[in-house]
Amino acid sequence: MRSVVLTCALAGAVVVAAIPTISVKGSKFFTSEGDQFFVKGIAYQLVPDDPLIDNTQCKLDAALMKDLGTNSIRVYHVDPEADHEGCMSTFADAGIYLWVDLDTFNTQIEQDAPHWNETQLEAFQKVMDEFQQFDNTAGFFVGNEVLTKPNGSVAAPFVKAAARDLKAYRDSKNYRNIPVGYSAADIASLRPMLQNYMACGTNASESLDFFSLNAYEWCGDSSYEQSGYDELTRNVTDYNIPIFLSETGCNEPSPRNFEDQTAIFGDEMTPYWSGSIIYEWIQEANNYGLIKYGEKVDPAASGAPPDGFTRSGTPTPISPDFPNLSNQWKTLTPSGVKESDYTPTLTPPPCPAYTSDVWEVNGGVALPSVGQTFDSAVKSSITASTTVPSGTGQPSASPTEGAAPGSPIKEVQGMSVGLLGLLLGFFWWM
């Protein structure tokens, strides 16, 4: 949030920073106080356009999130023209940071016929302009699950170009060095090529500041090995930028016990991972909610939402999921390393080579400029290479596809959603 000036008749004016800021050093996040930061987050998109303008609602939710042990929220869409000072101040007072997607409903990068143009850039810039002023803005996403299939890999240079241009804009405006990253779908055939591509290259201005993954692999009474978390971790032990789970929380079988949090914040993963964001805060038909705002109503009733789930009011924890997560987080407090004691030594990974039907981008190709679309010339520059036989020259990927039973169906209007209920919700919102 913005620094607050307190005027005291005896002591004069004193500037107080309400919350430490977050930055990147090497493969870790640190607060401005020098402590390593681990994300304990919740996905928070109550309404389609902007959940951060109703401070009365923010106060109710922030208080309960603080009790839960939350230190972050992820918001998928905001209105850059709205006033966010009240909600951002409320969350800062509760010790909660924001990870916000820069795209809007009509400016996201598409994997089919990808492009990156001035309209998209200006829209992303407006969101950055608004939220850079708040100390509890922890990071920006330039995309959410843009790539969901192998032949969608040709969109990766456009995502990376967006990150390049937003980082350059941030620096040209002398904004705080707020990290810029990407939230990826957990697609085994694209991992780990995608995460390596987003960090590769000798030009740091073109690589992401962080990478994150929407993974629903640990379901029910699973384990570090059975879930595939061990494979995910083996693929990032030499990763040179921070990585965390930007969505997780498999809900089948239910109830959710959130035992995966023990692994994420345990000794096997904290040297390499920076936490997780649980999907999601509100209860909807997809049954991922941690709270509800009252009982479900008949969608046919006058004024009722189409799916029957109210999206405002006093939040009521859903049992046993809410207390299960709370009990996990209360026992998991990784200390990490002090920034002053940390000297990064990792270097960027090699840019993955072209592999037919697996990763159709030719290593460290020149990124598209603003205004370029995926025409024949761009396609030629991205994909031209000597084909690498499938299965050679690439790190191993998890045997699972990541979309565990009960996990949300992805990429509806750029936000991860679940099945019929959230589809109905989007018809209502739009």
Automatic annotation (TrEMBL):
Q: Which UniProt keywords apply?
A: Disulfide bond, Glycoprotein, GPI-anchor, Lipoprotein, Membrane, Signal, Transferase
- Keyword check for Transport, yes or no: no
Where is this protein found? Cell membrane
Region of interest: Disordered: 300-325, 384-409
Gene3D superfamilies, alphabetized? Glycosidases
Start-end of Polar residues biased regions = 384-399
What is a biological process (GO) this protein takes part in? fungal-type cell wall organization
Task: Name the Enzyme Commission number(s) assigned to this protein.
Answer: 2.4.1.-
What is the role of this chain?
Splits internally a 1,3-beta-glucan molecule and transfers the newly generated reducing end (the donor) to the non-reducing end of another 1,3-beta-glucan molecule (the acceptor) forming a 1,3-beta linkage, resulting in the elongation of 1,3-beta-glucan chains in the cell wall.
Q: Can you say what this protein is called?
A: 1,3-beta-glucanosyltransferase
| Origin species | Lojkania enalia
